[in-house]
Task: structure prediction
Amino acid sequence: KKCLLIYFSSIGFWGLVNNAGISTFGETGWLSMEKYEKIADVNLLGSIRTTLAFLPLLRKYKGRIVFMSSVIAYFTLGNGIYSMTKAAIEKFCDALRLEMKKFGVQVCIIQPGNYARSTRIQPPLSAEEIWNELSEEEKEVYNKEYVQERANFFNSILSEGSANGNEVVDAMVDALMSPAPKARYMVAKLKEKALVFVCTLFPTVVMDSVLSYALSK
Result:
C-alpha cells in the first residue's frame, strides 16, 4: 500500500509521515530481481525521495518527520525482502535524526508488529501461486510439499495479525503532536517485543536458534 500523509499547521509545513509499504512472501531465491527492485523502490527509496523533496520546508519550520518501520526490521520469518527494506529505513532514520537535531527537526520511527489484518499489506498466497513463479532452478531444489508448508506457515501469521490499526495511528499522532516525541514507537504484542529483545541483546546464534524453531513449527 502507498500512503503519504502531510500535516499542515498555521505556522507552516509541520509534519511528514512516510507510510509507503508493500510486501510479498518468499525465500531469498524464490523472488525475482524485479520484485526486489519494486519493493525497495516503494518501501525505501520512495520514503527517501519524499523526505528529500520536503526537507527544506521541514528545516524552515522546525517540523517533524515520521517513518513507518516494523519489528520485522529486527528479524525475518519468511519475508526477508520486507525486512531488508525496513532495516534500511531504520538506518536512514538514525542518520537523519542526528543530522536534523541542529535544525530543530525531530525524526520518529513507528515500529508496528503484525497488523496484517488491518493494513492488508500482504494478501494470503497459495502454494500453487508460489510454485508457478519459481524458476526451474528453484523447482529442482524445493518440492511442492515444502512450498505448501511455507505457505501455510506464512498465511497463519497473516491471520494472527491485529485488526486494531488505530493503535498505530495513535502512535503517529503522538509523534507529530507530542511536545517530546519518542525516537521510536514500538506498537507490538508482548511476544513480538520479546523476540526483538532476543534479537538485539543475545548472540546471533541464539537468535538463529529461536527463529529456526519458529520456522520449523
